[in-house]
Structure formats: structure tokens, C-alpha cells
Design a protein that fits this description.
Chain lengths: 445, 499
Amino acid sequence: MPYLSLTEDEKTAMLGAVGVRSFDELIKDIPVSLRDPKIVLPPSLSELEVQDLISKLGRKNTSTKDALSFLGAGSYEHFIPAAALEIVGRQEFLTAYTPYQPEASQGTLQAIYEYQSLMTELTGLDVSNASHYDGATSLAEAALVALKHTDRPKLLVARSLHPHYRETIRTYLAGTPYKIEELGFDGKGNFNREEFDAKLDATVAGVIFQTPNFFGLLENLDGVSEKIHTNGSLLILTADPLSLGLFKSPGEWGADIAAGEGQPLGLSMEFGGPYLGYFVTSQALMRRIPGRLAGLTQDADGKRAFCLTLQAREQHIRRERASSNICSNQALCALAACAYMTLLGKKGIREIAEINWDRANYLRSQISKLKNFEVDSETIIFNEFRVKSKKPFAKIDEKLMSLGIFPGVVLEPFYPELKDQFLVCATETKSKEDLDRFVEALAQC
Amino acid sequence: MLISQDDRLSFEKSKPGRRAISFPKERLSGADPLKNLPQGLLRQTSIGFPEMSESDIVRHFINLSRKNFSVDTHFYPLGSCTMKYNPKVNEWAARQEKFTALHPLQIEATVQGMLQILWELEEGLKEISGMDRFTMQPAAGAHGELTGMMLVRAYHASRGGPTRTKVLVPDSSHGTNPASAALLGYHVVEIKSNSHGCVDLEDLKQHLDEHVACLMLTNPNTLGLFEKNILEITKLVHQRGGLLYYDGANLNPLLGIARPGDMGFDIIHINLHKTFSTPHGGGGPGSGPVGVKKHLIPFLPGPLVERTKKGYAWAPPSPQSIGRVKLFHGNVGVMIRAFAYLKTLGKEGLRKVSEAAILNANYMKEMLKDTFTVATKGPCMHEFVLSLKSCAAQGVHAGDVGKRLLDFGFHAPTVHFPMVVPEALMIEPTETEARETLDLFIEAMKKIAHEITTDPETVRNAPHTLPVRRPNDVLAARKPILSYRDQVREKVLLAEASA
């Protein structure tokens, strides 16, 4: 067993120093009936064997690098600059704990502060936390903030919000007096305005929209925040952060909270995690923010310094009266996003958003020419869109998989009424050659 | 100024026109989004990201990293945090493209290796903990606790009977325990510790009634003691129809030695980022799989991985499931690291880890007991608590000693926790530290003890060797500056005020 340092002689000497004859004397408080349980595990492997095993298991996977993938739906294939990977791999960041000792953690604290700063720039809102687990849980916390802040019992949630997010919010609110009501979508997939007008009543704490929504469509939220605020409710938006290089920010839409998934900001898909929940809100809601915040201050010698702040909200101080129970967050993922956004820079964030828009729009217009598939070319998209197949999707999927293509995410399991429809995503990672190959393969179906 | 000490923010180093990343020039759609999209949907405000070259950005972050203490550079004896060495083969494994480039919604046939890892990791956790099934979704310990409390509620609701509104926690518990229970609307009741630092059985009995939904317990507790009455405690709670939740933050000393499942716990979370050696990343990501006994399996979030004749597959959740607690399948990258560690440990490694963790802690406690007051009597498990109450006469607090240790090159222990011990210093060396390292720490503590009597000022004003000294957290909270935007706004306000 590696990673251990004590030699047998040292162990004996240390037991002697402690004043016991055997190790068992140290664990005498453990009832004998509990000791030495029978555990069935394979024997220890050497590092060489572990590497072999991992490689062997890896070969049983077909990754999105082996295939040509158009999967999106909440996890996106993006280019990650090598410099971002090097920065995140830096062991002084990787193997540090939560920065409770600010003098020994100025690196992590400044990086979190810069992350918070970048997120406020991107979303156009005032205050960002240091990260949450992922988009779904961050949004669930945003829902709780709205319910507590307004002291009202109901949430309106667009049905075009990611199904996993909706389910997570439902799980968080189950068994509480709070209610969730869903807002349907129209034939194109945008939220239903009449339903919104009708359901926005005095019991509504907050309204949650995703834009671009689960179907990849930008929502036109003109006049929405005014109505919501007149009603005394909060507007919560979740947006693909990269889309904000091109499209209106949550701040510009008048949102009170932007909460969602930061994975597109330089995190690999990694079969679903670890990702990055972002949570950015207004000054007014600052003291209700869940999780950690890094703040700027001065040290005892008047020098600029960073520390965790407003900790009176948090569980380690407030216990059962804390604003949230979160402790460990996704700090390293926030660092990755921080490095990525810094590498993008002011021009890069705009450019990458435009390239995503360009690739998805090109692909959609090419698919619109195929006779066995339908797309709605009038809708406004960012980097994904819905395709309706005239043949059963299972057949299409099988055929394309045999050609080494992952055609997209089938929608029927999430929305039973959307038969033979699938969600196709094209990011900056796709070249013209890739997109044309996909279209040619679809043409053969 | 030395470039390596240029600690301005990236925003302050920005120069208009500088770029790091370049992108392909080719545009395929032949359309300009700015002309083709409705203006009402387009962003109107600029994005104030910094403009820097790649080399300056890399230097910026690498120099920041050098201002951190970390396990790879320092001894980090932070109690209840298990800052053990993070093996590099784990990192190597998690960075393989065959895992990082997997989309979470790929069909099962294309992710058999991945699913096998999740399955085998779960099997290992089941064996080690004595539980019957795990959900891997929870992202961290506190998220596991929240999931656990949801399971408690769903279980009691399914059985009818009296309304169970109370969750009991010892007064020495981690803050996340009461916070997690309260988030679901439970009334949190604190159980007193007895004079030995363990659960006071009489106090427990007094609070036990048919309204108790659950007792949350860390064992060994935050004083580093194994609850020797554990079998009686779990029996008492079960007799009144309550459930038992095991906070796995302190599982490290029990590998191969004793199992929460055998003690009578119904639900447990395991911090893979503690016991299973995955790095803390400056605060996360962690992973907090939640394990349950048979009677609670139907309530687990889904889907769960099953092994079938055709290979590994996702089994849909049961109708009684509490539902998903997270997007997709949890922090998989962390699980791959834990899997590599589990394989390295093997059956024979389990006990070696825990024995060394316990021995290291007892050795340090013994070497320090004549210098400082140990909060408990007898042997400890993987950690122990010192009380620095007697230093108060010199105006020195536990936090000051923590700060002074930084000057000696050691990360501070956990300070002022658990709250039941005045002026607490909670020390957890872990199994991966060498005796020489422990001896250096012990020596530093003795020097500090001497300083407290001869030169308390030095301790009170520590640290003296780090880039900053005692950031003013009162100021930070009174006038929060939480972003570069706030800073700019603050400057404008100051300029206006002085004008």
C-alpha cells in the first residue's frame, strides 16, 4: 500500500511513546462485536496495474472525440485552451482546502474574487457567489431565495426549462408548503405569454425562465420583468453563459437572479460533472446568497487583502439558521471558468458566441434542405435546435451511430408529445467538414 | 516591484487590444448575427473582461497559486477535513480523454467502461460502509445530508403514523447537520455531550419521542472520540421509530475496522474528497454519495447503475424515489479518482490507512499533552482537540496559535470548533504524514507555547512571514466589495466625496 510513510519500527516506537502495547488498545471504545467486519474487496493493485485497468476501461467507452457528436441538452462540447488546463492542474490550487485561513490562501481567494468579478460582468448583475454545485442545484437555491424573500408560496417555472433542473427544483420543494406551477410552450417552443399573464398572481414568489431554453430558442422577455416586479415577484433567469457574448444578459432583461450552469466556461463534459453552478444576483438580495463569497479588504498593515465574507449567512456560523446548508462548493471549477474567461477576454467572449451561432445556423439551414427532416428556420437559436424526423428516431440513431455520429438528444423521454424529435447542438468545435458529413449522413436516412 | 509579486487583479493588468485565444476565421452561415438578429434580443452593454496576452495570464495565475498553502507544499492538519495526500495516479485517471470527453446522455452501449467504474465504486463503498445501495448524485457532504434528510422525510411519509418534525444533532456536530435538516423544515434539537465528550444518553432519552424523525451523528465525533454507546444509541432511536443518519466526514479511521451499517445507521454519506483521497480544489468539487439500508432503497434518487446480462445499464428510479437532486450523474470526475484510490487500497490497504491515521493522531496528542490541555481523556481516533483556554490570560486565542503556525510552515488546525470546547484547536494529521513531519509540528507547537508566556505579542500579531496579515473581516462584511465592479464604483464614490 503506497502513500503511507510509517515504517514498522516507527509504528512500534510510536505505540511505545503513546504508552500502549498494541494498536487495539487505541480502539478499545469500539465494541468488540463491531470490529473486524468481513469485507469483500479485490486485492490492492500497483500503480502500473491501476493505469492498465483505467486504460482498459477507457477503451470500453466511445467518447465524443472518437465519434462526431451533436449532443448538447445541458452539457456542451467546447474547445478548452491548453493554458486553462495547465492553470487548473496547478497543485497549489488543486490540493488546497477552503480558504478559511486567508493568509495562507490569497491565491485561491483572489482567483475566486476575479471569478465573481467576471460573472458580474457577464451577467450584468451585482453580486456573484463563489460557486454552487451545478446549474440545477443553483437554480433550486434561487427558487428558495425567491420563496423566502417574498414570503409567497408559489413558483412559476417554464416547461421549456431543462427537465433535470425542473426535477431538481421539485425534489428540493417536495414536502414543503411551496407549490410549483409550470408554464407551457407554444408550437415553436417559446414560452406561452398568455399563460404567463394568466398565472402571474399575488401568490407567485418567482418566475423561472431559461434562455436559450431547453430547445435552444432565445426567449423574448420584453416587458416580462416589469410585469413580474409590478406583481411583487422575482425574475430568475438561467442562461448558457457563452450565449451572453451575443445575446441580452440577465441584467439587461431585468432579472433579480441569474442562476445556472457554467460548464460551457472551460469545463469538460466528464459524463456530467463536476460542473459549476453560477449564482449572481442584485445588491438587494446580497445577504440571501447561498454559499461563499470572497471580498476585498485591508490587512492589519493596510495592505490590500482578500477574505471570505458575509459568513454570518453560512452553516458553520449560523447552523440551523443559515441561508443554505452548502459547505464544499465547486471552487476548482470556478477557477477553471475564471482562467477560461480571462483567456477569452473582452473580444473573445463575443467571438466565441458568434461562432457558435454561426455553426448552429449553418447546420440548421443545411438540414432544412433534407426531405426526411423538418426544422423551424424562423426561430432564433444560439447553438442548438430541434429537428423532427419523418422516420422513427430510433432508426436514425442506429444508422448514424453505425457511422460514428451521435446525432443528438432524443426529446420524447422528456416531452412525450415531441415524438421523433431530437435536439442537435453544434458549437465552435465543429468544422464545415464535420457539419457537411453529418448532413450527408442524415440525407441517407 | 518583482513581477512574481505583481498581485494586481487581471482587470488592472488589462490593456485594450491584447488577446490570448484566437479562433478559426471561417464563417459558414454567410450571415452577420448583428445584422440578422432582432436588436431587442442582442446584448447592448459591453462585457468588461480583461484584455491580456496568454503569457501574462499564465504568469498571473501561477503566481497566485504560489500564495496558497496546499497539501502538496505543506502539512495541513485541518481537523475533520482529512487533508491526506492526493495521489497523482488518480489525477492521471480522471484526465483521460476517454472519460473527460464523455457526454452524460450518451447511450449505455458507448459508456460501458464508465458505468463499470460507477458500479464497482458503489460496490466498494457498500462493502466498506455496510450499506445496501448508494446514489452517487450528491455533490458534497452537505448535499448528501440534504439528500439524506429528504430520504428520511419520504420514508416516514410512506409509513403514515405520527408526524415526525424533529431532527436531533449532538452539540458537537458539524454546522451542516442542523443547516441541512432546517432546510427541509425540521425542528433541530441539540443533544448535550456528557463530560467525556460523547452523546449524553440521558439527554438523548429525554428528547426521544414519536416526533423524532432522525438522529444525525458523526462517529467518531468531532472531538475525535468513538461513541462507545453507539449500539445503545441506535437501538434507542429505532425503538421510537426514528432513523439514524451517519455523517461520513470522519470515516477515515474506520476503514476495515468497523462499519456504520453494522452500528445500526440507516443512511450515510461518504465524503470522497476526504476518506477517498480526492483533492479539495480550494473548496470543491467534492462528492458525497449517499448509502442506505434495504428499507430505504426505493426512495433513492435515480437512475442507478445496474449490472445486467447485457452489460451495465441505467435502471429507472422507483415510483417512490424522492427524485433527482442534481443534474446528470453527480461529480463523476471525483468518482473516477476515488475509484483509482479504491483499486490501489484493495482489501489489505483499508486497515493500514485507518491504523496509521489513528496512530499518528495519538502520537501527536501524547507529545502535546504536557504543553497544552487535551479536551478529552484516553486515546483518540484520527483527530483530537486541544483547548487553549489557559492561554487567555496572556490574551492569546486558539485562532492566534493557528496563525502563528503558518509562520512555521504549517497550515492551521481547525480553530474554534467544535463549539463545545472553549478555544478549540482540532488536529487531524492523516495517515500520509511521516513521523518527522509530526515531530516538526510538535516542536513548533512547543515553541509557540513558550512564546505565549514570554512574548505573547508575537503570537497575537502572527503571521509575520506571509503576503498579508490578518485581513480585516469586519471591514469586509460592513462594506462588502465583492467584485471589480464594486471596486470601481467605490473609487468613483471616493473621488466624488473628496471633490
